[in-house]
Amino acid sequence: MHRLYLSLGSNMGDREQILHQAITAIGERVGQVERVSSFIETEPWGFESTNRFLNAVCLVTTNLSPMRCLRVTQQIERELGRTSKTHDGHYHDRPIDIDLLLYDDIHIQCKTLTLPHPRMHERPFVMEPLNEIFDAQ
User: Fold this and answer.
1) 1-to-7, 52, 103, 114 alpha-carbon distances in Å
2) What average pLDDT score do residues 63-79 get?
3) What is the mean pLDDT of residues 36-41?
4) Domain limits at 29?
5) What is the pLDDT, as a whole number, of residue 94?
6) Residue 36: what are its φ and ψ, rounded to 5°?
7) Total structural domains within the chain
């Protein structure tokens, strides 16, 4: 089994419900959800919006490959209303965002996936819940 850490965020609709739906779908299709951080409310990062984000991190044990995890989480995003990652290269409001942060100690850099996530250390809304999970282990 592999240890996968995922970042989740939502700033549209019933944010808490959407995060719970995403976590449930991850548990059904990616692997066993071992831990979920507290949900934290944050300002948008990388764009301006009046809609605040609700963010969390979860730890999942999985047998899926990193690329398969990416495809499955992108499908979950689409099912929960996500239509695109960016508009003209810019971030925007979204019902759900799921990012792969870490997958074991694997390092991957390709067109569609970079692990560990290259900007996670710049994002307090990722690091705070990720550290909460690390501290609980």
Assistant:
1) 19, 35, 11, 20
2) 96
3) 97
4) 2-136
5) 76
6) -130, 130
7) 1
